[in-house]
Amino acid sequence: MHTVAILIYDHVNPFELAVATEVFGLDRPDLGVEWYRTFVCAVESRPIPTRSGFSIFTTYDLTHMREANTVIVPSTTPGDIAVPDQLLEALREAYQQGTRIVSFCTGAFVLAAAGLLNGRRAATHWLWSAQLAQHYPLVRVDPSVLYVDNGQVLTSAGTAASIDLALHIVRKDYGAEIASAVARRMVVPPLREGGQAQYIQSSIPNHLEPSPFSAILQWMNTHLHEELTIERLALEMKMSQRTFARHFQQATGTTPHRWLLQQRILQAQRLLETTDESVERIASFCGFSSAAMLRIHFQHLVRTSPQAYRRAFNFKRATRS
Known about the structure:
Layout: E1 3-8, H1 14-25, E2 37-42, E3 48-49, E4 55-56, E5 60-61, E6 70-73, H2 85-96, E7 100-103, H3 108-113, E8 121-122, H4 129-135, E9 140-141, E10 147-149, E11 153-156, H5 161-174, H6 176-186, H7 212-222, H8 230-237, H9 241-252, H10 256-274, H11 279-285, H12 291-302, H13 306-313, H14 315-320
Parallel strand pairs: 1-2, 1-6, 2-5, 6-7, 7-11, 8-9
Antiparallel strand pairs: 3-4, 10-11
Helix pairs in contact: 1-5, 5-6, 8-9, 10-12, 10-13, 11-12
């Protein structure tokens, strides 16, 4: 029988904890397979406070982790409280024994603190991706995906992405049919289209500090549908192309081409969310030469297709269906 240990520690997030217990902790005799044996274990034998104001108590402690084939670390708010050294050491010991180590959302910070993500690609909630990368430079943080499977170490993105990773683990252990049956019981899709990038909140800057580039950025925003070459932009600023490109990089941290592409994709996202315009017309509105070019860049930056994005985020269409 495959044994799963779910860790709880101070300020643990109840949602990800509940996902772990829902997927791995409920007996499922109707599936016709021997299901996981699951227990929740804590660092100390005392009530463990959660982020939601209530506490949890368990009779299992870190010594029981030695029995586990899989260890799951739910999330907390990074920096809220120091992760106990005995928890980090227990995770390292479990890893050395070949135990599968899984983090949900910001639980990746705990795995990183234990050194288990060094040199590995990892996921966490997009709001915390930059901080994870900054604090743990040996971790290759990918803010665009729902989860990362490195074999023995697996990490998920934010909140509901823990469901995606949990079902992925079931799929690895029992196959697609069993994973789909669990997904149906949970009333969630067995596989979600796209990655975390489609949920990242971005916006066109509207609070730029006064500078020669404030006006040109606003002007570019209102002319996204036009062909904006470096020659035209430099002419607007009365600069040489080389000087314009250098100052643009200093002001925005990116190139004119990349900045324009990002803003055009953002505009396409808003139109997909709020209108019924065809992808072809949206491509034209946003300055793409064709719908095919919009699809290529949209897939690259948002990690899903325009059609799939519209199905997920167009409120008008959702309320009519």
